[in-house]
Amino acid sequence: MKIIVCIKQVPNTNEVRLNQETGTLMREGVPSIINPDDLAGIEAALLIKDNVGAHVSVMTMGPPQADIALREALAMGCDEAYLISDRAFAGADTWATSSTLAGAAKLLGFDLIITGRQAIDGDTAQVGPQMAEHLRIPVISYAEEINATRDNITVKRQYEDRYQRIQANYPLLITALSELNEPRYMSVGGVVNAYEKEIRTLTYEDLKAYVSQENIGLKGSPTRVKKSFTKQPKGKGELHQVSDDESVSIIIQKLKEHHIL
Amino acid sequence: MDFNLSKRHLLMRDLCTKFAGAEVKPLAAEVDEQERFPHETVEKLARYGLLGIPIPVEYSGAGADNLAYAMAVEEISKVCATTGVIVSAHTSLCAAPVFENGTEAQKEKYLRKLAMGEWLGAFGLTEAGAGTDAAGQQTTAVLDGDNYILNGTKLFITNADAAHVYIIIAMTDKMKGTRGCSAFIVEKDFAGFSVGKKEKKMGIRGSATCELIMRDCIVPKENLLGKEGQGFKIAMQTLDGGRIGIAAQALGVAQGAIDITVNYVKERVQFGKRISQFQNTQFELADMQTTVDAARLLTYRAAFFKDRSEPYANYAAMAKLFASEAASDITRRCLQLHGGYGYTREYAIERMMRDAKITEIYEGTSEVQKMVIASHMKVN
Q1: A29 pLDDT exceeds 80?
Q2: Of residues B11, B57, B63, nearest to A72 (C-beta)
Q3: What is the pTM of this model?
Q4: Nearest-neighbour CA in chain B from A68: distance (Å)
Q5: Which residue in chain A is spatially nearest to B68 when comparing CA positions?
Q6: Residue of B nearest to A192 (CA)
Q7: Which residue of A246, B6, B54, B133 could cross-link A242, Cys pair, CB 3.0 to 4.6 Å?
């Protein structure tokens, strides 16, 4: 079985700076981590590898600095890593990103693609499902539990108020929740190997047979950021240390004051 | 000359920091308080390759180097010195001598299990009458057919009642003094071998420090490590390597103490100010961090030369001397910055100050390190 895991390197803190002109993120100088949902995706793939056997490729689209995220994935036990990086891909929104990643997936071939549900910097949750659309394969989002066999896969899908248990055949795409599992650490031997392996960079030249130029980079991105601004902090809250009954009446009074009740 | 760590070493440190923070730190106070050996942590250390860091992949190790090993012991010791010495004693004092002196058969049988962490290792040199004067060995080994028969008692043995295999130094020929010492690989289950009384210690209280008792202990002659008469040399070389581990442990304790103290002084308010705003606090911490950086450079230098298979005993002795004395001094000063709270067991600095002291004593006291350094300087 061939699994592709898509990961994103995201800023570790909330101190994200924005390019005011383009409204895109300025990543330099901000400590980076693998997006938590994506880390769960890596673990899910490695568990399938441990249990039924699989070849796990990890890929990310980003600047050359994203290399470290791929090394970490290799050090956890992924078999190979691809960095999708080209000036032509820069400034991509979710549409252009998913088009590009889908192109790379076609190039590499797969039975299963796992992405994280959403990235903590953008929170769109669009790239995974869009990739599935581009590839015309089924998608099961919000996976909280995965049971894979060589023939099919069963996923417990989380909704706000219920679960679905879905069985599907390969190929398909799953988006993983961070609650899905407890990702393993890198291992010492894994770190040694991670730097013995070559990370292949895929450029537009490599992918042009699989993705149209109209669908990549800033130009291929229909999303327009009109304005980026810092949210005004809320006013200071009131703190009442009172009994349960009193606190209920205070809340009700407040809700009435604000015409909510 | 380049002071930058390689990307591989940075990633290695990242792994150790994450592991130590999530798996080791939460148990540190508990294993100290209960004087309990953290068996569950040892299993996890094994799973992630942390018990065979500098052992080559061909012997089931992780295939990393001694610098990576020192960094791992440092990161772990930042949060728990007990766990730091479990890794250090196992790796430097048991796996390393088997790797460096063992026959292929010994490596196949013992090194693989040690490097994978399936078996934990320990080292028995010290005796009641043979501490710093390690040459005063009373334990004897007499060849009897296909076996050596060992008799004697070893003292203060780290990992003792958790280990499966031990490197034991014993006299095969008392007439020859240190040239009459030999080293043996002894399994826990060998007839006549037992673990004796467990010490009640001031620090590293989760580490199992016990006596090893050999009464007509039967050791197959193929378990002789090196040749007869090489035991003292093997022991001294083993301790040279061990000193990198203990220097790294001391370095970790000292850096860990500074790290928690920096957090503390930024929160603690006295005289209407955070105490981090007082110049005394700033100067103390600046001074301590400079010392710890010097200790780190000494420790990494020793590991670097060991990795290049160049003489490093002198560097290891300097690193161990400087880092261990720094750890004792810095934990004491960090506790002072904590004030009365630091003296309570609510705060980790109290444990760290107790843990630091042993690094000046085991695997050669500070005085022994000075003897090693002076002899390299040809001052005699």
Answers
A1: no
A2: B11
A3: 0.90
A4: 8
A5: A188
A6: B64
A7: A246
B12 inside 8 A of chain A by CB = yes
Residue with tokens 């501490």: B131
Question: Is B50 in the A-facing interface, judged by CB distances under 8 Å?
Answer: yes
Q: Compute φ and ψ for A201, nearest 5 degrees.
A: -90, 130
Q: Which of A49-53, A247-251, B211-215 has the lowest mean pLDDT?
A: A247-251
Do the Cβ atoms of A204 and A88 come closer than 8 Å?
A: yes
**Interface contact flag, B47 A194, Cβ < 8 Å:** no
β-pairing, A163-169 with A17-18?
A: unpaired
ipTM confidence score: 0.92
Query: What angle do helix axes B348-357 and B313-338 make, rounded to 10 degrees?
Result: 150
Say whether residue B48 is in contact with chain A using an 8 A CB cutoff: yes
Residue type, B203: G
Tell me the nearest-neighbour CA distance from A250 into chain B, angstroms: 33
Q: Do A195 and B50 count as a contact with CB atoms less than 8 A apart?
A: no
What domains does chain B contain, in order, with CATH numbers? 7-120 (1.10.540.10), 122-232 (2.40.110.10), 239-376 (1.20.140.10)
Contact B134, B232 (CB under 8 A): yes
CA A113 to chain centre: 12
Q: Using DSSP, state whether A161 is helix, strand or coil.
A: coil
Sign of CA dihedral B344, B346, B352, B357: positive
- State the amino acid at position B199 in one-letter form: E
CATH entry, A2-215, from 3.40.50.620, 1.10.10.60, 3.20.20.300, 3.30.1360.120: 3.40.50.620
Query: Is A188 within 8 Å of B47 when comparing Cβ atoms?
Result: no
Q: B49: which DSSP letter? A: T
Distance from A97 to chain B by nearest Cα, in Å?
28
Q: With CB atoms and an 8 Å threshold, state whether B62 touches A192.
A: yes
Report d(CA B17, CA B25) in Å as an integer.
10
Distance of alpha carbon A88 from alpha carbon A214, whole angstroms: 11
Residues of B serving a catalytic function are: 363
